[in-house]
């Protein structure tokens, strides 16, 4: 006899499928006209259908209490974050240019060591200022969870080689900061802890104290809570366990898997053993394999995934082949992971903990903390170091942009869930410092994730409305655009693109980096200094206004020969009045970089 089956699985699949269909129906409007991206709508839907809404998505009902007292939801959240970030870091890694890490090692070293250290300390200072009952070490733990720039949200704002590289690398490089603070707390011998031990020794005959001591011994056996030993033991364990085993092993293991994948895919192509679908799915399989094996080994799976993605395309062959095959598989996997991950985050936001007398948190404090972190987490660090990275950040305007757009997202959720496994539950720790930290850890980090998704997700739409209101003239890319083929006549033209007039590519468009702000008057001034670098780009980067555009572009291209450059200057000057860019772009950021031909994922509106 037929009967309804209102199980959690059926409900979640129904909601996720319906959301994908609804988003797909309006995807061009959402991405290219409203500039909302993928994260913010998914989080809003998750909130509406989660624990504070209809409760149709309630992860608390997905499993029973575990034997050790911790909820299964924490393990589900940690596992979800590992899968989503791991797979996407492999994809982001192979989409970088060949040997990019070797070419930009100096700038990346500054970002991973200098920039992240300043960000960590500034963020921890914000925690001390806004969150009550926290010690300095506890603030360092919470600050380390939100230090990294989220690799998923950052791609929705600033798409380019260096932006992807920094976000991907620092998301796996956050463990040294987290574990240093964790080791200092766990190996500290505070007066409170010593007084508690002395009291327990004097009262050992009482049943209640015996049970407390047994509970603490069980906690120590599981590797959480206070382990004593002092600062020396903490630093030694930090160097050996974190830097050597966790970081160095992850880099080596990821590089080995990445290079083996590079040679394996080239061999399979040469022998014609691999078909198109499996070739494009290789990064996803590699990401899942690394997440699983690194979890078994207990090393940094995120860093290993990003390194493996880099090494997969170390010679540039894999990315070149995916472009020839018009890869949309990895982009679709990205989108599905984003939908599921951010909808889940919206459903599990701990709204009841955002205002609590036990932690001293209120919505006013959290809003103030959000703005403090927005202003002081990344901007001061970038301003302090941007002159040491001239190839990445040219002036203070670009530094301000790079500092502002450092979103906090699913990476912070991963770190907070990992940190929660290192400390006892609130009220079960041996010191007040640990109890206060355990109580404030999740609500503070989850609030900052929500705050960042909303603020950064609405920044581009707000800026677009402001530019339209001010009547800002259209701008183009000083480096020229990237020519990309439209696979169907029904494909929409991105907002930062125009149809190409190149000979032989009638169905292509010229895509411009939306963050550049170089006006046509500046282009003309640069042309007066010499034709080099301008006449080569105008035929691709500009939509000509008259019907003779194709013949003009062909003649101007011929002028790039050594014999034609002498007369090319006058020809280019005669063409300037007919040039008129039509689209609006946004603030400069060289860290967002001009899109390069090696990036075939499509265009972010």
From TrEMBL:
Keyword terms of this UniProt record: Membrane, Transmembrane, Transmembrane helix
One protein family per Pfam: Na_H_Exchanger
Record InterPro entries: Cation/H_exchanger_TM, Na+/H+_antiporter_fungi
Coiled coil stretches, renumbered: none
GO molecular function terms attached to this record: sodium:proton antiporter activity
Subcellular location, principal: membrane
Leader peptide range in chain numbering: none
GO BP terms: proton export across plasma membrane; regulation of membrane potential; sodium ion export across plasma membrane
Entry's Gene Ontology cellular component terms: plasma membrane
Subcellular location(s) of the protein: Membrane
Region entry Disordered, spans: 550-605
Membrane-traversing stretches: 6-26, 33-56, 76-96, 108-131, 243-264, 335-351, 363-386, 398-416, 444-467
Residue ranges with Basic and acidic residues bias: 580-591
Start and end residues of each Cation/H+ exchanger transmembrane domain: 22-463
Membrane topology: Multi-pass membrane protein
Stored PANTHER family: NA(+)/H(+) ANTIPORTER, SODIUM ION_PROTON EXCHANGER (EUROFUNG)
Record's protein name: Cation/H+ exchanger transmembrane domain-containing protein
Protein source organism: Saxophila tyrrhenica
